[in-house]
Amino acid sequence: xxxxxxxxxxxxxxxxxxxxxxxxxxxxxxxxxxxxxxxxxxxxxxxxxxxxxxxxxxxxxxxxxxxxxxxxxxxxxxxxxxxxxxxxxxxxxxxxxxxxxxxxxxxxxxxxxxxxxxxxxxxxxxxxxxxxxxxxxxxxxxxxxxxxxxxxxxxxxxxxxxxxxxxxxxxxxxxxxxxxxxxxxxxxxxxxxxxxxxxxxxxxxxxxxxxxxxxxxxxxxxxxxxxxxxxxxxxxxxxxxxxxxxxxxxxxxxxxxxxxxxxxxxxxxxxxxxxxxxxxxxxxxxxxxxxxxxxxxxxxxxxxxxxxxxxxxxxxxxxxxxxxxxxxxxxxxxxxxxxxxxxxxxxxxxxxxxxxxxxxxxxxxxxxxxxxxxxxxxxxxxxxxxxxxxxxxxxxxxxxxxxxxxxxxxxxxxxxxxxxxxxxxxxxxxxxxxxxxxxxxxxxxxxxxxxxxxxxxxxxxxxxxxxxxxxxxxxxxxxxxxxxxxxxxxxxxxxxxxxxxxxxxxxxxxxxxxxxxxxxxxxxxxxxxxxxxxxxxxxxxxxxxxxxxxxxxxxxxxxxxxxxxxxxxxxxxxxxxxxxxxxxxxxxxxxxxxxxxxxxxxxxxxxxxxxxxxxxxxxxxxxxxxxxxxxxxxxxxxxxxxxxxxxxxxxxxxxxxxxxxxxxxxxxxxxxxxxxxxxxxxxxxxxxxxxxxxxxxxxxxxxxxxxxxxxxxxxxxxxxxxxxxxxxxxxxxxxxxxxxxxxxxxxxxxxxxxxxxxxxxxxxxxxxxxxxxxxxxxxxxxxxxxxxxxxxxx
Amino acid sequence: xxxxxxxxxxxxxxxxxxxxxxxxxxxxxxxxxxxxxxxxxxxxxxxxxxxxxxxxxxxxxxxxxxxxxxxxxxxxxxxxxxxxxxxxxxxxxxxxxxxxxxxxxxxxxxxxxxxxxxxxxxxxxxxxxxxxxxxxxxxxxxxxxxxxxxxxxxxxxxxxxxxxxxxxxxxxxxxxxxxxxxxxxxxxxxxxxxxxxxxxxxxxxxxxxxxxxxxxxxxxxxxxxxxxxxxxxxxxxxxxxxxxxxxxxxxxxxxxxxxxxxx
Lengths: 794, 263
Description:
The structure holds 2 protein chains of 2 kinds.
Chain A: H1 18-22, E1 38-44, E2 50-56, H2 58-61, E3 66-71, E4 107-108, E5 114-120, H3 123-130, E6 134-139, H4 146-149, E7 165-172, H5 174-182, E8 186-194, E9 206-212, E10 217-222, H6 227-239, E11 246-249, H7 265-277, E12 281-284, H8 287-293, E13 300-308, E14 314-326, E15 353-362, H9 376-394, H10 398-403, E16 412-413, E17 419-420, H11 425-435, H12 441-450, E18 454-463, H13 471-476, E19 485-491, E20 497-501, H14 510-522, E21 529-533, H15 550-577, E22 584-587, E23 590-593, E24 599-601, H16 602-610, E25 625-630, E26 639-649, E27 654-665, H17 672-692, E28 724-727, H18 745-762, H19 776-793
Parallel strand pairs in A: 1-12, 10-11, 14-15, 20-21, 27-28
Antiparallel strand pairs in A: 1-5, 2-4, 2-6, 3-5, 7-15, 8-13, 9-10, 9-12, 13-14, 16-17, 18-26, 19-20, 19-25, 22-23, 23-24, 26-27
Chain B: E1 5-8, H1 12-22, E2 25-27, H2 33-38, E3 46-49, E4 59-62, E5 65-69, H3 74-79, H4 81-86, H5 88-95, H6 100-105, H7 108-114, H8 121-128, E6 131-134, E7 138-140, H9 141-144, E8 145-147, E9 150-151, E10 159-165, E11 169-176, E12 183-192, E13 195-201, E14 208-209, H10 211-219, H11 223-227, H12 244-262
Parallel strand pairs in B: 1-3, 2-3
Antiparallel strand pairs in B: 4-5, 5-10, 6-7, 6-10, 8-9, 11-12, 12-13, 13-14
């Protein structure tokens, strides 16, 4: 970055936002208070699948404090919630896209489906009234898993989706794959379930919707990762309002992990109702409500086969996946198990031919959408579990089987539609092995064996595609929106800089990282930089934060705006210094005439722009305020190797993660402390998925059995080891920051590392397969089954 | 939460009278009851708060027993030098209940009266052969725990204190359910003046004594003896965290581990 490579960029600057978060001064949706508020409460379906015969809310309407009660039939002029990505099936037809009513109409399709909205003076009054609403349900048979849903005679959710199919879609060259399998030395096979996850951000979803009769405008405070997208979808697709009359503010948000990307029913119904009752409406999800109304993650059933030659060289990969999309298509549900999944199946490997077929299925469960990693953890799990199986089957060491297949020439065009710009997979594998002390593993395993414990080591060499995305490519693949980002840099007269970004921070530390970029590039004090995000009323536009895109795309938009600031500053400085514009250089916060000591500080130029007494007014507008939209030319490709070491107690089935090493390549790093924090959080979530998190629906009743923290195990600090993390850098080649993104890598890379480690540990007792989460009960059962199998064989 | 009245009592007699008058429920630490009320699963019209009753508090040594007041918080038991010296297993048990917040509010009497099938204290009381003193009588632990959330307590009868005979040796091993961290199975083993007692929580509808393991340990107080016992799975709990067979397997394993720490 030459002259700009200075100041705070690359430094572990402490997170500026933490002062308010840690002292209780954060301003979350539920901290915003308005006059004349009323409470909204949603009466939800207690059934997985039922026809609504009638709804009688006469007594409820008369209950104390009740302001209004609305059912799906009352929401006249309100369209259903849209899906933002059209997938075209292998049959050439668009996906089946059944209506997704804001409040249920005619039928309910999952436990938690919102049926009635009660507006009352207090929450308790709304809940009391809800108990007086009589919904006459005709309970229907339900289906919760994809295997059951595809069976002939399975309960049907939607008339518009025969056989419960949303689509069958494929990617890759099937003929080439078939040909490679025909001449394969060996085929490694895995059958895997990628377990459904419940997101559980620390701040539950919340909304405060209000309407102003003064200018007929709406304001929505909402826990969103992308307020402009929320506004766009809500106005253009559902409520038919002009965007000019709707302001969406996502203030401090306590975590999202994907679950707060989407346009949800609750805030949509509340916006509509806020005008009808002419009062601000507040709703905050209770935790048990979040379990049955926040979009879930993952939920794939997959069969994968890798054809290899005698040396373990990958010849072709064949993958068949059935993905559960839940009862309705959530905002990005359709692209997660396709565009963000199958495209990643090359992993870090030069597999010449890949084919993947995905069938998406409706079930009587909460809708499934992006959750930290979104398709890429599922792909990585497939690739790294089958790569592990190749090593096991052929007796090749796990690092060696990976090395024999690594891509080493860039750019590399994969057989699944992506072009990797850069990477060095040997470097991250080597460093991860050093961090994991692989050399000492045999000694540790022997020591554990003396204590009756089983040790195992598992590898995962993952890749992900971040920095979503070139809009034209996304559009060709079915996206119904662009995927650029906007940034505005406003230099104030006294030199302070306000940055308006379309990215949204809900824990990621943008206020620090982005300020470092701006301060570093302008050569000014970081304290004079303010980052503003999360408000459609203040920010030009934005596509928001997901897919580890904020720095690579949002940060680049800011850099592009900064470039415009510097370009204009040079013009002003040239005038002030009576020099040619071409002779002005900008570095370290100063505009200098090249080869001289004559310069103007950034602040002097800013002042001149706003007090243009000595200014080229005939050629240049006053002011110093620039906006840029940046649309990336490619995805970015963070990659790395994670190595997990587990110790299993065969007597109880308890798996302890005794060590975890991760070496990642995120490209250039702005703030290593924040990056490390992102990796730690991601690893916790990935280990949570692989070891603890078990979302269980009852197969006959369709009830969510793991509906609270009493049964759904989130990872806690004492479930995790002290992580050993490191980085290697190959800068991204197509954005000026050289940044790739780091938000999801931990959650993507870690689950197969852990499961591969569990299988390595259990190999000596004959266990060949296990599904996530590797709970004590499941591990114990696997050991018992292996023992019984051995006994039966003997 | 439904609206309710709350009344503060300053003596056991006053509390019992208030409960009888109002048909209300006693409020001890509230760590189960208040959570249920917040979910609208419990709807008491009146709560009678026991927190201000001095006679329900305190830990004292009484001959060969520890006497602990019903309103003593888990954190107090865990930190008590008296308990740690006399029955370290009981202090450790209390220290392992819930989280810091729960331990600072939850009480011994509340836990026993609630008799959650996965709670720890019932295993301690039954394993040590405690005597439960109530506002009306004394009840041996063997007669106190009747079934799922069911005890020998009558309407309006309050636990006032619990007398724990000091054992020669005791240990509690809890195998946590991964989500709730209640006991998936918890086993309390004690060598008492009345013989070896083994109490099991988490595995059945209520805490129970594992007689087969007691017999085995009476013959030989060794981990091997405990582990050699085969427990039947029938009648044990089965849920998404563990089948009845798994729980049956864990009981002797955990009993053996408890013995290993003290044998």
